[in-house]
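Per your request, structure below.
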């Protein structure tokens, strides 16, 4: 369930008058705002709309880009906090954006929409995922054609025949070797499976075979052609790499803003929240990543990293506070399900860790 704030609270948060907030709501420029009787309520995570009155803003405004996948660990709830952080760093005029573990790209598409940076570099260790980014960038029209066929076929079937079709497509995906000849086919199947599987989960077995069952969404939006075309245009300014996060090290310098979003550290041994368990990123991996962060900190780049906050479960767990000693460790609120017990649902804190100026 969304958390809402009043127009007065939004005016204080965005540092504008309450009257301006109401006008923005009336004009439909506050995403998710709703009118209850005579009163406007605004999602707590809604971002302040860009001021349309200046030439500079008119120049950078474009169609809002949305992630083309549902991806475990998505950052939609943290975007307002991260956006505030980037805005506060604007005085430094960072020209380059680097995201070494891009995943579903929620922040990437956010900064692309707002034209925050001149150069952008993304990377991920998941080769199938990076293939999707590359195909959207280079061959979006043919991708849309294939996804449209899959969507028309899937939506025309009843539940039982959808299952047969889904598992047939999953088997086809698992038999393809990713190379130049199959890049388009593999990307289209990857997106189809993501849109129709259980909870947008990406999981493979020990043999590397995708093994997620079909989900229960009756009307999945398999082919969002408008968004895919907008993303394709925006990715023209983005350099895409496949590999370990250290792959992009050579592109990081004092003019760079780096955002790192690793698989979150599990909050408990039995945590079953996919955002935290997908890639089996253990404590040794977290320690290695912290070493990389300290290494690139020496370049003068601005670094922001997100992770789970173990203090939600154990107030004495100082794993990240100790690991990033000398950095600023901020705790921000997000709505997450971290336990099957209802007492452990709702608002928890997550970490945003940055280097000092």
């Amino acid at each position: 369930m969304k958390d809402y704030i009043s127009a007065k609270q939004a005016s204080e948060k965005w540092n504008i008058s309450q009257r301006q907030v109401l006008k923005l709501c009336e004009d439909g420029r506050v995403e998710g705002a709703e009118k209850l009787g005579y009163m406007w309520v605004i999602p707590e995570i809604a971002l302040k709309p860009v001021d349309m009155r200046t030439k500079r803003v008119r120049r950078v405004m474009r169609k809002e880009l949305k992630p083309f996948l549902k991806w475990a660990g998505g950052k939609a709830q943290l975007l307002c906090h991260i956006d505030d952080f980037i805005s506060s760093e604007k005085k430094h005029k960072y020209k380059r954006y680097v995201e070494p573990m891009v995943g579903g790209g929620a922040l990437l598409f956010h900064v692309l929409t707002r034209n925050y940076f001149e150069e952008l570099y993304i990377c991920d260790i998941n080769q199938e995922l990076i293939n999707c980014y590359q195909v959207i960038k280079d061959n979006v029209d043919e991708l849309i054609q294939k996804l449209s066929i899959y969507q028309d076929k899937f939506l025309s079937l009843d539940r039982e025949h959808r299952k047969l079709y889904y598992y047939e497509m999953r088997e086809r995906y698992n038999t393809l070797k990713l190379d130049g000849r199959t890049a388009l086919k593999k990307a289209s199947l990857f997106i189809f499976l993501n849109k129709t599987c259980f909870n947008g989960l990406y999981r493979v077995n020990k043999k590397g075979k995708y093994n997620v069952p079909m989900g229960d969404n009756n009307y999945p939006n398999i082919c969002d052609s408008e968004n895919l075309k907008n993303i394709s245009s925006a990715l023209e300014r983005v350099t895409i790499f496949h590999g370990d996060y250290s792959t992009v090290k050579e592109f990081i310098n004092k003019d760079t803003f780096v955002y790192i979003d690793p698989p979150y550290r599990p909050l408990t041994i039995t945590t079953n929240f996919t955002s935290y368990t997908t890639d089996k990123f253990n404590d040794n991996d977290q320690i290695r990543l912290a070493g990389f962060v300290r290494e690139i900190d020496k370049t003068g780049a601005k670094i922001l990293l997100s992770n789970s906050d173990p203090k939600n479960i154990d107030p004495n767990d100082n794993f990240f506070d100790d690991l990033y000693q000398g950095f600023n460790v901020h705790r921000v609120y997000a709505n997450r399900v971290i336990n099957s017990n209802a007492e452990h649902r709702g608002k928890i804190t997550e970490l945003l860790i940055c280097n000092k100026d």
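The CA atoms of residues 99 and 122 lie 5 Å apart.

Regards,
D.
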